[in-house]
Amino acid sequence: MEFFRSIKIKTQDQNIQDALTIENLELMSNELFVIGNQNKTEADIGGIWGEFTLTRNLIRGGLRFALVECPNALTWTITTGFQPNPDAIIIHLTINRQQQEEAFIEEIEAFLDDHSHCLQQIFLGNIRLKSK
């Protein structure tokens, strides 16, 4: 299954990569938090779905985050600069199932709504990020 959110803010992929670090994870979502070891590319996190290793990878146009041990292979990208909406930030979340329980889908939708709101506040300059 796949899910999308569009944030109508023009930015550059480098700005996404610079701002959305593991160090700033808790500013990017109210539903994820670091619980253990962390470095620039991964962290032990907790959240609404349990405890996982979160990975962060630079990709063309932005970033990819993944929950390594997630049985649904949940991953999401945050990118900009691509058609059909190159002047927006796009969040694209996927799981490796074609169908899923409605409660889990509702949790994904709530996560994306929260994540979108937090990212909008970051890129509007309303949230002060931790420095690199």
Question: Mind explaining what this structure looks like?
Answer:
With 132 residues, the chain is α+β, with helices and mostly antiparallel strands. It has one domain. 25% of the residues lie in helices and 36% in strands. Strands 1-7-6-5-4-3-2 form a seven-stranded antiparallel sheet. The N and C termini lie far apart (34 Å).
- The count of DSSP E runs of length 2 or more, i.e. the number of strands, is 7
Treating each run of at least 4 consecutive H or I residues as one helix, how many helices? 3
Spatial extent as radius of gyration: 14 Å
Strand order of the largest sheet: 1-7-6-5-4-3-2
Give start-end ranges of low-pLDDT stretches.
none
How would you describe the shape? globular
Q: Topology of this protein?
A:
Layout: E1 2-7, H1 13-19, H2 25-28, E2 32-38, E3 42-47, E4 50-59, E5 62-67, E6 75-80, E7 89-94, H3 102-123
Summary keywords:
seven-stranded antiparallel sheet, 3 helices, alpha+beta, 25% helix, 132 residues
What's a concise summary of this model?
The chain is of the alpha+beta class. It has one domain.
